[in-house]
Design brief:
Blueprint lengths: L5 H29 L16 H6 L2 H33 L3 H16 L2 H11 L11 H26 L2 H9 L4 H30 L2 H6 L7 H10 L3 H31 L1
Length: about 260
């Protein structure tokens, strides 16, 4: 830490707790408490029950969770493939070409996600590529939204790579494809896993663009949460939110373990 005195460290931790508890921890604890309640008319919830979880772990809610997981994994894989390829290709370009490429990938972040959803809806609602009303348009929109994060993360890692490794491999007769698969990508593995986890988390929580695009047979869990709270079922919506958070944290924990092992290679 930058603070070395004991009093300074205690002051930093106290300041952190003052900010963290009301801004981050308390809202999550409220959602967790509401997921076990049947009534909340006072300072604390009452009528504690696990019935909400019994309802949200089967039927349409379970299907929505599966839909979110499949959507997030698919969008993350597509984003990593496109973003990594663009980052590696952009590194070989000049400064101007790299700037143009970065601008193109940052466009989805420069506008609200609902605008991206509308753009995808307009672009793929007519032949020859008709995706409206199918799950593929949701997968495509999520991939577009998270690719920018993958590209930026990998681009930053590519710039920091030591070219000596690639030059040594090339001097020993390795072909460019061998240098890519045996040298560059293994060195980028910690950054790749970190950006994959970020893409997954962002896709799991995406709502604005999804609301414009999802078909009835492909309803992600955030849409179910919005629908439940919109009709007044706040406790059921809270249980759905806890399930969404738990699934996301479990996947991110697994990705973190992969990243840690990759860092020690």
């Amino acid at each position: 830490m930058l603070v070395h005195s004991r009093k300074g460290k205690w002051a930093v931790w106290a300041f952190f707790l003052v900010l963290f508890l009301p801004l981050f921890a308390l809202p999550l604890l409220v959602v967790l408490a509401a997921s076990f309640a049947t009534n909340w008319s006072g300072a604390l919830p009452s009528g504690l029950t696990t019935g909400h979880y019994a309802a949200v772990t089967r039927g349409e809610s379970l299907h929505a969770l599966t839909t979110s997981l499949v959507t997030a994994v698919t969008a993350s894989v597509l984003a990593m493939l496109v973003g990594t390829w663009a980052a590696l290709a952009g590194h070989a370009l000049g400064r101007r070409g790299r700037r143009v490429l970065d601008t193109l990938f940052m466009l989805p972040l420069a506008v609200p996600s609902v605008v991206v959803g509308l753009a995808v809806l307009v672009a793929f609602s007519q032949p020859p590529v008709l995706l409206n009303g199918t799950r593929w348009i949701v997968l495509l929109a999520h991939a577009v939204l998270v690719t920018a994060f993958a590209h930026q993360s990998v681009s930053a890692a590519v710039v920091r790579l030591d070219p000596a490794y690639e030059q040594a491999a090339a001097s020993l007769g390795a072909r460019p494809s061998t240098v890519l698969w045996r040298v560059r990508l293994p060195l980028l593995l910690p950054s790749l896993t970190a950006s994959a986890g970020l893409c997954f988390a962002l896709s799991m929580g995406e709502l604005s663009a999804t609301m414009m695009l999802y078909p009835p047979d492909w309803t992600p869990l955030p849409v179910r949460i919005y629908a439940a709270t919109d009709r007044g079922a706040l406790f059921t919506g809270s249980a759905l939110a806890v399930v969404l958070m738990t699934a996301t944290v479990l996947v991110l924990s697994a990705v973190s373990r992969i990243r840690t092992r990759a860092s020690y290679r």
